[in-house]
């Protein structure tokens, strides 16, 4: 099994922090490796819906993003990327403050499709949402930004 390059991990964490949509939600990729990822959000007023709880779209975005990154290092070819083709989210409890912690876990990596699951917990441990995602492996995608990535893995 290949080991993620720490320099590449640092670039990915920064990329998520600076990317338009994740930064809009103040997502922070706090941990990532082969088969897993952790993304956190400090709940702010911008995350709330009318009734004073975190909007379901925020939770779905957390599940979508953390499942993506949990599969990322399962794809060995650095020229291949992923896109979500299916997303399932179950909302289990409301959240209205504190930190939300999303943990994603790679379940299956295939040549064309991958599968991952996620749980979103409140800072105090209560599970807020559970979800799963099917992701398609994409070949030859050109990034919209000109980024210089260190090697994806330590050889």
Tell me the number of helical segments per DSSP (H or I, 4 or more residues long). 3
Class computed from helices, strands and strand pairing: alpha+beta
> Judging by the overall fold, what is the CATH architecture?
Roll
Largest sheet: 6 strands, antiparallel
Strand line-up of the largest beta sheet: 2-3-5-6-7-4
What is the assigned CATH homologous superfamily? Answer: Hotdog Thioesterase
Proportion in β-strands: 35-45%
The percent range for helix content is 10-25%
Mean pLDDT: 94
Oligomer, anyone? single chain
User: In CATH terms, what is the fold-level topology?
Assistant: Thiol Ester Dehydrase, Chain A
Low-confidence stretches: none
Give the SSE order as H and E letters. Answer: EHHEEHEEEEE
Determine and state the CATH class.
Alpha Beta
Q: Quote the distance from N terminus to C terminus.
A: 10 Å
Description:
There is one protein chain. The protein has helices at residues 6-18, 20-24, 56-72; strands spanning 3-4, 28-33, 36-42, 80-91, 99-109, 113-122, 127-139, 153-154. The strands form two sheets. It has a six-stranded antiparallel β-sheet with strand order 2-3-5-6-7-4. The chain has a two-stranded antiparallel sheet with strand order 1-8. It has three helices and eight strands. It is of the alpha+beta class and 155 residues long. It is globular, with a radius of gyration of 15 Å.
């Amino acid at each position: 099994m290949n080991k993620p390059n720490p320099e590449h991990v640092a670039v990915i964490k920064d990329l998520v922090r600076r990317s338009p949509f994740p930064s809009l939600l103040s997502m922070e990729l706090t941990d990532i490796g082969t088969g897993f990822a952790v993304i956190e959000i400090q709940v702010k007023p911008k995350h709330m819906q009318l009734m004073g709880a975190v909007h379901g779209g925020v939770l779905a975005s957390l599940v979508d993003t953390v499942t993506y990154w949990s599969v990322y290092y399962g794809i060995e070819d650095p020229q291949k990327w992923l896109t979500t083709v299916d997303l399932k989210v179950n909302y289990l409890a409301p959240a209205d403050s504190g930190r939300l912690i999303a943990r994603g876990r790679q379940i299956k990596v295939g040549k064309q499709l991958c599968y991952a699951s996620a749980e979103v917990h409140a800072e105090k441990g209560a599970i807020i949402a559970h979800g799963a995602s099917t992701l398609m492996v994409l070949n030859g995608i050109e990034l919209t930004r000109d980024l210089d990535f260190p090697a994806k893995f330590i050889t």
